[in-house]
Write a structure and sequence with these properties.
The protein is an all-alpha fold. It is built from 16 helices and two strands. Helix 1 packs antiparallel against helix 4, helix 1 packs antiparallel against helix 6 and helix 10 packs antiparallel against helix 15.
Length: 414
């Protein structure tokens, strides 16, 4: 159900302009909340990484902490889909932000008081991962309820641009804040950002699509599974990103900070990470204005660009090479991201959309703990450069297999 069209004076929003979705109050609240959430996650990514490295000096320990969050994402992903197809999605998001703020406050306090340990940080990261898993299907399935159908592509692009802007600022600010104030105070700021995101979600007022029957969790999961598996183009892309996300998490999130500590430094590493999201901002703007009819094929083909930062970290970890590599990767992945969300929203029934998103999240995230925990030992065994190069090969191979599937090549957007 879309919000009624808002007006300013006697002027209606342009029918298809990039800014047209922002004329809808519900969409503004959703977009602001998602942007703040990802700003907070970006701060946490940088601050937590260096908090663990300061505590232990070990990429293996960092992989354990990050892997704990990813494991919780996997465990609770399906629950998030069931809840989001049954309960008010904005309320779910408000609750998720409140718990995330509390968990980040506890992490910050443990770091600032000197009581932090790897088991404690891993446990609190699991809490953060669990609420993120519950909130994710609600956030992505809420977009079609906040704008008319003809603005769906623009709305997804604008929302994702806001997310990427939040991440870009968060990554850049995270590196600077860690350098100036340390990881603990940066994590405290992160908690405040999550609280602000919850307030933004409170502005969203939309009706939930009516459920098709009584609440039966196992039956609901089975319905979502049938929707997910009945479309080969859905599950093959999810399989692809099982590989891509695991390699990216291990190569960039775990090995990247270790390489940065030995080469460009922590502050510049935050700048390098922000280049990816800056590229995604440009990619989102391009996607809002134009995408080919076979947008999914176009987007999937571009995901092979994920190999660029991995090769650059391995063979030339300098700012002049890392910045363009990350920028191009962000631009390419945002073309895919908009095409993927619009493809799901146009082809999956609204009352089952969150559950399909939850299977998407489960499949995409299930290999993250493996990638994060295995990256450190693998680099120690074979060397940093071979580990990163091997990840690049896996990313390209997964892309080639996916584009060979007929459903991916033939799907057209409405």
């Amino acid at each position: 159900m879309s919000a009624p069209e808002e007006q300013t004076g006697h002027t209606r929003a342009p029918a298809h302009g990039v800014r047209a979705p922002l004329r809808y109050r519900n969409f503004r609240g959703l977009a602001a909340g998602r942007s703040l959430m990802y700003f907070g996650n970006a701060l946490a990514t940088v601050a937590l990484a260096f908090a663990v490295l300061d505590l232990t000096g070990s990429p293996v320990a960092l992989g354990i902490v990050l892997g704990s969050r990813s494991a919780a994402l996997v465990v609770f992903a399906l629950l998030g889909g069931v809840l989001a197809d049954r309960l008010p999605r904005s309320v779910i998001l408000q609750g998720a932000c409140a718990v995330a703020a509390a968990s980040q406050t506890a992490i910050a306090a443990s770091v600032l008081t000197g009581v932090a340990s790897v088991p404690l940080l891993a446990a609190l990261s699991m809490v953060n991962g669990a609420v993120a898993a519950v909130g994710l299907p609600a956030a992505v399935s809420l977009t079609p309820q906040t704008v008319p159908a003809h603005l769906l592509r623009q709305a997804n692009a604008v929302a994702r641009m806001g997310i990427m802007f939040g991440m870009a600022v968060g990554m850049s600010a995270g590196g600077g804040a860690v350098g100036l104030a340390g990881p603990g105070w940066t994590l405290a700021l992160n908690a405040a950002v999550f609280a602000a995101a919850g307030a933004a979600f409170g502005l969203v007022r939309v009706a939930l699509p009516p459920p098709t029957g009584p609440s039966r969790p196992l039956h609901d999961l089975a319905e979502g599974w049938n929707e997910f598996t009945s479309r080969p183009w859905v599950w093959i892309v999810v399989l692809q990103f099982m590989i891509v996300n695991a390699v990216w998490a291990g190569g960039v999130k775990v090995l990247g900070p270790a390489v940065a500590d030995e080469t460009i430094g922590r502050g510049l590493w935050g700048l390098v990470l922000s280049a990816e999201t800056a590229g995604a901002l440009v990619g989102g703007l391009l996607a809002a204005r134009w995408q080919p009819r076979r947008a999914l094929l176009f987007g999937v083909s571009l995901t092979g660009m994920d190999a660029l930062p991995l090769l650059t970290l391995g063979y030339s970890p300098t700012v002049p090479f890392l910045l363009p590599a990350m920028f191009l990767t962000g631009l390419a992945l945002e073309q895919f991201g908009v095409a993927w969300e619009v493809s799901l929203q146009q082809n999956i029934p609204p009352e089952k959309l969150a559950r399909v998103y939850s299977y998407d999240a489960l499949g995409s995230f299930v290999a993250l703990p493996i990638g994060e925990t295995a990256a450190g030992p693998l680099a120690a065994l074979v060397g940093m450069r071979p580990a990163l190069a091997g990840g690049a090969v896996l990313v390209v191979a997964a892309c080639l297999v996916t584009v060979s599937v007929p459903g991916v090549r033939t799907l057209t957007r409405h």
